[in-house]
Amino acid sequence: MPELEPTRQGLVDVEAFRIHWEYFGGGRREVVCLLNGLAMHTKAWYPLLPRVIDRHDVLLFDYPGQGESSADDVAVTMPLLARQMAAAADAAGVGMLHAMGISYGGFVAIEFARLFAPRLHTLTLSGILLTHDHLFEMYEALSLRFYRGGPELFDLYTHYMYEKIFGERFVATVGASLDTMRQRFADRYRDRIHVLVRLTEAQDPFFAALDELGPEYRAIAVPTLVMPGTEDRAIPAWVQRKICDILPDTRYVLVEGSGHVVYLERPDVFWPTLLAFTASKSTRFVVDPPTPALQ
């Protein structure tokens, strides 16, 4: 199958940054925004677009320093990233949308839901937390030490990260190509590690404000799907489940045999579940036919 190309794309200025966005589709269907993980960029979604493009138009955008967005060494915050998402949607002519945030993208998605809930049909989260957890704080602090430690430590970090984020089944399946994936990540950010530092630092004020903003998160009435993997060691499933105690209308779907990157490790489960959810716009959705490896 030939690689899909954006129907239209562009750049939009949001505060200190120029943000790259891409739109796939003719504008006559509901839109799903696929939100990047920390080490991703818009083109990382291209091989997976056939799984969703028959049902939805798709909006993508790069965070500061990713892909074709500007990469100035300037502080960012989660509310800023949410505003950049809104600006990208505006530039693409998108009003309401379905937001799907994986890992770091989940933090952007939940912040968009807090600030722009009327623009959401549904919210899908995978690989994030909305509580104070010491193990995640230790993981974040360790990541920053690797980033700031220079090229040699950064190269070591890429090995550490790729060992941590995937489940056993996926690693056994992809074999040697895992190192190719790791090398692409290293090559993409080796000369602009400050981007990873700035994006990671944005999590500090986000977590610092959780208690103060707790009522605003609890007021997010958007139907929400929380879909972790059973083998997620970065943010364990039991931590992600606590989101369901905060957001009022949630559905928790645990995917067997997956680590942190469920959409890539178990696409046979993740994408049919997502599409059933977006079609129903309800946490009472039914996947037909039923997908395997769900709890």
Polypeptide structure, described:
This protein has helices at residues 78-91, 104-116, 134-148, 151-165, 168-174, 177-189, 193-201, 203-208, 210-218, 237-240, 262-265, 267-280; strands spanning 8-14, 17-24, 31-35, 57-61, 97-102, 120-126, 224-226, 250-252. The chain is of the alpha/beta class. It has a single domain, classed as 3-Layer(aba) Sandwich (Rossmann fold). The chain has an eight-stranded mixed beta sheet, with helices on both faces. Strand 5, helix 2 and strand 6 form a beta-alpha-beta unit. Helix 3 packs antiparallel against helix 7 and helix 4 packs across helix 6. The two termini are 33 Å apart. The model has no long low-confidence stretch (mean pLDDT 95).
The whole-number mean of residue pLDDT values reads: 95
Cα-based radius of gyration, to the nearest Å: 18 Å
Instruction: Give the strand line-up of the largest sheet.
Output: 1-2-4-3-5-6-7-8
Q: What CATH architecture do you see?
A: 3-Layer(aba) Sandwich
Termini separation (Å)? Answer: 33 Å
Low-confidence stretches: none
What name is given to the CATH topology?
A: Rossmann fold
Oligomer: single chain
Tell me the name of the CATH class. Answer: Alpha Beta
Instruction: Supply the number of helical segments.
Output: 12
Number of spatially distinct domains: 1
- How many beta strands in the DSSP annotation? 8
Reported for the largest beta sheet, the result is: 8 strands, mixed
- The gross shape turns out to be globular
Helix/strand structural class: alpha/beta
Helical amount among residues, as a percent range?
Answer: 40-55%
Order of helices and strands: EEEEHEHEHHHHHHHEHEHH
Relevant CATH superfamily: Alpha/Beta hydrolase fold, catalytic domain
Strand content: 5-15%
